[in-house]
TrEMBL record:
<dbReference type="InterPro" id="IPR027417">
    <property type="entry name" value="P-loop_NTPase"/>
</dbReference>
<feature type="transmembrane region" description="Helical">
    <location>
        <begin position="207"/>
        <end position="226"/>
    </location>
</feature>
<dbReference type="InterPro" id="IPR011527">
    <property type="entry name" value="ABC1_TM_dom"/>
</dbReference>
<dbReference type="InterPro" id="IPR003593">
    <property type="entry name" value="AAA+_ATPase"/>
</dbReference>
<dbReference type="GO" id="GO:0015421">
    <property type="term" value="F:ABC-type oligopeptide transporter activity"/>
</dbReference>
<dbReference type="InterPro" id="IPR039421">
    <property type="entry name" value="Type_1_exporter"/>
</dbReference>
<dbReference type="InterPro" id="IPR036640">
    <property type="entry name" value="ABC1_TM_sf"/>
</dbReference>
<dbReference type="InterPro" id="IPR017871">
    <property type="entry name" value="ABC_transporter-like_CS"/>
</dbReference>
<protein>
    <submittedName>
        <fullName>ABC superfamily ATP binding cassette transporter ATPase and permease protein</fullName>
    </submittedName>
</protein>
<dbReference type="GO" id="GO:0005886">
    <property type="term" value="C:plasma membrane"/>
</dbReference>
<dbReference type="GO" id="GO:0016887">
    <property type="term" value="F:ATP hydrolysis activity"/>
</dbReference>
<keyword id="KW-0812">Transmembrane</keyword>
<feature type="domain" description="ABC transporter">
    <location>
        <begin position="266"/>
        <end position="503"/>
    </location>
</feature>
<keyword id="KW-0547">Nucleotide-binding</keyword>
<feature type="transmembrane region" description="Helical">
    <location>
        <begin position="59"/>
        <end position="79"/>
    </location>
</feature>
<dbReference type="InterPro" id="IPR003439">
    <property type="entry name" value="ABC_transporter-like_ATP-bd"/>
</dbReference>
<feature type="domain" description="ABC transmembrane type-1">
    <location>
        <begin position="66"/>
        <end position="234"/>
    </location>
</feature>
Length: 509
């Protein structure tokens, strides 16, 4: 009964420990509210290593921990039997284990240190694999026949990744061979001593049989202890890395001041910004303010810093210099989650959650079916849903039974409905209609901008026809403000804006 019981208990503990570690990794992600961690490749490498090990390293702690204890008890018992006849042989056999263990621990340390490098390559290998296997890239992969090149790159990268590991395993093989030779030498001496003692009749023949049995058990226990303790040490190194990750912080502090439902003014004062681990300044000396109820359009060429500015306004990053003020106080003084509770956004790279339509719109906030339907209607999706017989419980992915696949434009409308549903004080729209036809675009801007008079809305757009809905336009060039005024005034006073607007206007004539 004991082995089945032990196996069951081990399985239960393993499941709980694995679940505990995975939940803690997710909770740690919640603590890191800045996007700067995603600019740090080392963070990704360590996270990859922890994620890869979360399903089996906690198991190793239990499995190898129990195995070392069992083998240790067996070894002590067998060595004590041996010591009754010749304690020198027992001591030498025990001492042989020490250099072998130290050698294994050192090799295991080297193996563990290569894991961060391997995890970097593992992310690349995962990507190359998903490139050929996932639905998302299936069209281009087949159209351009990317299979041979991607498979070749995968094989070469896999070989490079294995080089260091193979070298470590060769070292481990040499260490094992030396250990085996020492055990054989000591065992041979022991057999000679026992055989001589039997022939001299100082001990009985049964002692020789006992020695043969004991030496086999001792050799097995020694090998198990050395091997399993080195693997246990490897798991302990992973736990140490996990504990360090748990203590990681990104110096991104939340204040304590409450917004209290009043976002009256957001002001940028001499704001400049450079992304972490980069030397290129994206925004330079930005100065402007957004007052409650205003509709602000941000326009400019690609790379002028429009999307970056939205990220700063939502405090996903802090300025490299200057400050952002909320109601006259530094934005850093405010409680971050409370501030974001007053915001909503439709991002250019919006998320396509493989969840129900209801979850995609409500994103786990308090669910109100009627409000979800109204949001979908305002985003221009209701007629489509009725035609296709799609309910709020339909999964938006064919990877799951009964799921459906939406077009790019339909997905963008779902993302817009997500923003409408939040009913936040301040809405940020980053290219919200890039994949939507002109008629739908006009209807959406009308719903968002015209019918929300009291709401503050900041929207990034390349389609300058949308600026007619804006109170003011922030015109960016190369990360600098070249103008901040109404469309009418900018057309008169700003030559670059005038030329850009007319160039786009002429394209439709």
């Amino acid at each position: 009964m004991v082995p089945p019981l032990a196996t069951s208990i081990q399985g239960i503990l393993t499941d709980k420990l694995t679940g505990f570690i995975n939940v803690n990794l997710m909770k740690k992600s919640e603590d890191l509210q800045s996007l700067s961690i995603f600019d740090n490749s080392t963070y990704f490498d360590e996270l990859q290593m922890l994620k890869d090990g979360a399903s089996w390293r906690p198991v190793n702690l239990i499995v190898f921990g129990v195995a070392v204890i069992q083998s240790g008890l067996t070894l002590i018992f067998m060595l004590s039997l041996l010591a009754r006849y010749n304690w020198w042989i027992a001591i030498i056999l025990f001492l042989v284990m020490i250099p072998q263990s130290l050698s294994y621990y050192r090799i295991q340390q080297q193996a563990f240190e290569t894991m961060v490098t391997r995890s970097k390559n593992a992310r690349k290998l995962d990507y190359l694999s998903s490139l050929l296997l996932d639905r998302k890239d299936a069209k281009e992969v087949r159209l351009f026949n990317m299979f041979p090149t991607v498979i070749s790159r995968y094989i070469n990268l896999f070989k490079d990744t294995r080089k260091d590991v193979d070298q470590i395993r060769v070292k481990q093989m040499y260490a094992s061979s030396i250990f085996l030779a020492l055990v054989v030498a000591v065992s041979g001496y022991g057999f000679y001593w026992f055989a001589s003692s039997v022939s001299q009749r100082t001990i009985g023949a049964g002692a020789l049989l006992m020695f043969i049995s004991v030496i086999a058990s001792v050799s097995s226990s020694l090998a198990t202890i050395v091997e399993d303790s080195s693997l246990l040490y490897d798991s302990l190194l992973w736990v140490e890395k996990y504990n360090r990750f748990e203590k990681y912080h990104d110096d991104f502090k939340s204040g304590t001041k409450q917004v209290n439902g009043n976002v009256n003014q957001i002001q940028l004062v001499h704001v400049s910004f450079t992304y972490p681990f980069s030397k290129k300044e994206i925004l330079h000396n930005i100065n402007f303010e957004i007052n409650k109820g205003e509709k602000i359009a941000i326009v400019g060429e690609n790379g002028s810093g429009k999307s970056t500015l939205i990220k700063l306004l939502m405090r996903f990053y802090d300025p490299s210099s200057g400050e952002i003020k909320l109601n006259g106080k530094n934005l850093k003084d405010y409680d971050l989650k409370d501030y974001r509770d007053n915001l909503s956004a439709t991002f250019q790279d919006y998320s396509r959650f493989k969840l129900s339509l209801l979850d995609n719109v409500s994103v786990f906030r308090k669910e109100n079916m009627e409000r979800v339907k109204v949001s979908l209607d305002k985003a221009g999706l209701n007629s489509f849903l009725k035609d296709k017989n799609i309910s709020l419980q339909t999964i938006l992915s064919k990877e799951f039974a009964g799921g459906v696949e939406l077009s790019g434009g339909q997905w963008q409308k779902v993302a817009l409905a997500r923003g409408i549903y939040s009913d936040a004080q301040v809405e940020f729209l980053d290219e919200p209609t890039a994949a939507i036809d002109a008629n739908s675009e006009n209807e959406i801007y009308k719903n968002f901008l015209v019918e929300n008079e009291g709401k503050t809305i900041v929207f990034v757009t390349h389609r300058l026809s949308a600026v007619k809905y804006a109170d003011k336009i922030l015109f960016l060039q190369n990360g600098k403000v070249q103008g901040f005024d109404s469309h009418k005034n900018l057309m008169k006073s700003n030559t670059d804006y005038h030329d850009m607007y007319n160039l786009q206007k002429e394209a439709y004539v």
